[in-house]
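Q: How do we represent a protein-ligand complex in a form that can be generated token by token?
A: Start from the inputs.
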Amino acid sequence: MKRRILYTLFTATLLLGSGCKPLFDIRKAMYDQPKYETLEATDFFGDRRSARPLIEGTVAQGQLRLDDHLYQGLEWIDGEQLQARTYPFEITMDDLKRGKERYEIFCSVCHGVSGYGDGIVVQRGFPPAPGYHSDHLRNMPPGYFYSVATNGYGKMKGYASQIPVEDRWRIAAYIQTLQRSQNATLEEYEAALRAQSSNDNHLDSTHDHH
Ligand code: HEC
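Then emit the structure tokens for the protein with heme C bound:
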């Protein structure tokens, strides 16, 4: 009985309500148009998915990576594409400072701040990371360090998802700086000192003139 009253009331509201509707409701028309709801199945495609996967090779706007030197760490050398022996952009002192900072954040925990493979997690029992001061690694080109930082090596994971492209190059440059710092000849060291002091004198003399 109660049910019946409710039902009558309901139909009455519907009838009354519909009386006030405009003839054509544009919003409702859009709502009711034939369309797929999110992830709804379809018979139109063989795999029955209405949401289609990206076409292979799709590149989002602004994400085209044509520069193999910058992105892959590869350079054309004697008609072959090899690990880059040069940096894709000029490495300034600021780049080295940024490389040092990034290296110390991401790499030093295993490879050690000076690159001897004695980082803190290794000291606490993590499988040892190699030092950078072996002949094998000293002779590697910049593109090699970029590639290891990008893709990983053996047990070490890649850092492409955490460290942006340019910073990976800056880290490579800093590793090569660490290598030089631990393996310079006396002549190189003295030459560097001379270059530095003549640089300082030069700076002093420019100061005097102004
Ligand atoms: C969690 C520890 C860990 C971190 C962090 C780490 N590495 Fe490593 N790395 C290793 C280990 C372990 C190996 C040796 C892997 C193997 O031989 O299977 C290695 C190997 C290497 C090598 C040597 C490849 C060769 O030819 O011998 C380089 C270069 C290197 N890492 C660079 C980096 C750089 C650059 C970073 C920071 C972006 C980094 N690593 C961060 C553990 C680490």
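Residues 92-202 form a domain with the Cytochrome Bc1 Complex; Chain D, domain 2 fold (CATH 1.10.760.10). The pocket of heme C is lined by residues 106-107, 109-111, 127, 129-130, 145, 148-149, 153-156, 159, 171 (CB under 6 Å).
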